[in-house]
Design goal:
Strand content: 5-15%
Number of strands: 12
CATH architecture of the largest domain: Up-down Bundle
Structural class: alpha/beta
CATH class of the largest domain: Mainly Alpha
CATH topology of the largest domain: ABC transporter transmembrane region fold
Largest sheet: 6 strands, mixed
Number of helices: 15
Shape: elongated
Radius of gyration: 34 Å
């Protein structure tokens, strides 16, 4: 089983040349641990009356000292290797996340990514600690059985037969345990998905008893019960294996005490020495047995990390990016044009759940464009298409005469500064060099946040604000990015009437005077006059303008 272990293969690959040194010192530690047992037995047999056997004492001290040194080296070097694995895995997966397409990240789910990355790296860390001890224990146990053979060949034969039977029975249960662990992990991830629903939708759950009971009783509780049962079954199997290993030693000792004298002429002193060796082996065997289930769990953990990385690799939309394109050199434009663009949201089985259809839209540089429509009409999806966060299923996007595709989408996105309804507020102005702190403080005053936060040492001093205040802080970050196109999705929502008026009639107009293009989703019909155009979305389409309609133009 260990030879096929993904976890052990990972350790071996990462350790490289150090792995040989770690393995040799672990083997030496196990050998020295077994040698301590031989020295103790020898000292007991040659104990001088009324004095100290100085030769055995010196041997004991030297052996213990060498054991501590080699064991410490093996364990400490193992820590370095495993921490490097965890560090590189987290950084590598984080890099793949940022390179993935938005729709893929949405399909995978934040809970799945977070739990897979955190829980499985912790399992690998814990398993590595036990495995380092187990390696020394294997050598010590092997040495002990060789010593038993030296004491009595028949005792070794009895031990070998029992060991072969025990190992085959023990390993026979590991495959089913591994399968149960994988299914348990899947069920626990599903549980955290339901828990995330409760946390993210707490207000809705609190207000609707039927929704709360259905989510908890029929979904969360059920999957948690299934995960619990699977976990209990697998842990009981581990307990059974542990007790089996312990019972094996009692059976072995019984055979040595009661069976060996009947089939071989051995002296009582030899039997006592063999029993002493067996007793000395119980601790190392316990280390080995406890390591086995953790190695099985670590194999599952490595497999789940590999699956996540494979999914992220398939979701990587940066693989076709070119470092230099016509669009990479473009700082100004006359128009962004969407031609017969379609896009489909799908369920996990690939069945479409919502679609944008035949979107023809031209956004002129320097204009203020408002997008309106009911919930679920496709406003936010349209914004994600316009900003290339979603790729069209069909149709094309052009910047002037340059088509936007996967080779230049990252350059195209550099034209935009975005604030979506589910925006994330960063504590720093990441990506900006030589930030003008005076300008940031001026904007903080302008957004009426001076009493709530400030900007010191390159970061906002407080981002624990109300939703409306967070949006104002996001506006400051957007202003500082100073991109060509500003995209605002319901930014004026959650603002008091006075600041809402300031947003539309002062901030947006100021951006337009600077030559910026503004695309804003809004429901504030009293400020529609601020826009150069107002487009209405209905059922995934841009609604046609009715004759004489001065509003939607």
């Amino acid at each position: 089983m260990l030879g096929k272990s993904k976890f052990i293969s990972l350790l071996r690959e990462k350790a490289g040349g150090r792995g040989v040194k770690i393995a040799l010192t672990a083997v030496m530690a196990g050998f020295l641990q077994g040698l301590v047992m031989v020295i103790i037995n020898g000292a007991a047999e040659n104990f001088p009356e009324g004095g100290l056997n100085f030769r055995y004492f010196v041997m004991f001290v030297l052996c213990i000292s060498a054991f501590i040194y080699t064991k410490r080296y093996a364990l400490s070097q193992n820590v370095y290797v495993v921490q490097e694995i965890i560090f590189e895995t987290r950084v590598r997966i984080s890099d793949k996340i940022r390179r993935s397409a938005l729709v893929s990240i949405e399909n995978i789910g934040r809970t799945e990514i977070y739990t897979t990355l955190t829980e499985n790296t912790e399992i690998i860390l814990e398993a590595s600690k036990r495995l380092a001890n187990a390696c020394s224990s294997v050598v010590m146990i092997t040495f002990s059985f060789l010593y038993i053979g030296y004491l009595s060949s028949m005792a070794l034969a009895i031990s070998a037969v029992l060991i072969a039977a025990a190992v085959s029975i023990y390993l026979g249960t590991q495959k089913s345990i591994s399968e149960m662990l994988m299914e348990t992990t899947r069920r626990e991830t599903e549980f955290f998905d339901y828990l995330q629903h409760i946390l993210d939708g707490f207000k809705e759950v609190k207000m609707n008893t039927e929704k709360s009971d259905d989510l908890f009783e029929n979904h969360l509780k059920g999957v948690s019960t299934t995960a619990k049962n699977l976990r209990v079954d697998s842990e009981i199997q581990f307990v059974n294996n542990f007790l089996f290993s312990q019972g094996f030693f009692f059976v072995l000792m019984a055979c040595i005490i009661f069976l060996l004298p009947r089939i071989s002429s051995v002296e009582p002193g030899v039997i006592i020495n063999v029993i002493a060796v067996i007793l000395f082996m119980i601790g190392p065997l316990g280390d080995l047995v406890e390591a086995m289930p953790l190695v099985a769990k670590a194999d599952v953990a490595v497999e789940r990390l590999e699956i996540l990385e494979k999914v992220l690799d398939e979701a990587d939309d940066s693989k076709e990016n070119l470092p230099s394109t016509r669009l990479s050199r473009k700082r100004d434009f006359e128009a962004i044009r969407l031609s017969r663009v379609t896009f489909n949201h799908t369920d996990p089985r690939g069945k479409p759940t919502f679609s944008l259809s035949d979107i023809d839209l031209t956004i002129h540089a320097g204009e203020v464009l408002f997008i309106v429509g009911g919930n679920g009409s496709g406003k936010s999806t349209l914004l994600k298409i316009v900003t290339a966060l979603y790729y069209p299923a069909s149709g094309s996007i052009f910047v002037d005469d340059v088509p936007v595709d996967r080779t230049n989408a990252h350059h195209y996105r550099d034209l935009f500064s975005i604030i979506f309804t589910d925006f994330h507020l960063f504590d720093r102005l990441y990506g900006l060099k030589d930030v003008n702190e005076d300008r940031v403080l001026e904007l903080i005053d302008q957004m009426e946040l001076a009493e709530k936060t400030s900007f010191e040492d390159g970061r906002f001093t407080n981002i624990n604000l109300s939703t409306g205040q967070k949006k104002r802080l996001a506006l400051i970050a957007s202003y500082m990015e100073d991109k060509s196109v500003f995209v605002f999705d319901e930014v004026a929502a959650d603002q008091d009437p006075r600041f809402r008026k300031h947003f539309y009639e002062v901030l947006l107009k100021d951006l337009q005077r600077q030559g910026k293009t503004v695309i804003a989703v809004t429901h504030d019909d009293r400020y529609f006059h601020v826009a150069d155009r107002v487009l209405k979305m209905e059922y995934g389409r841009i609604a046609p303008r009715e004759p004489g309609d001065k509003l939607f133009r």
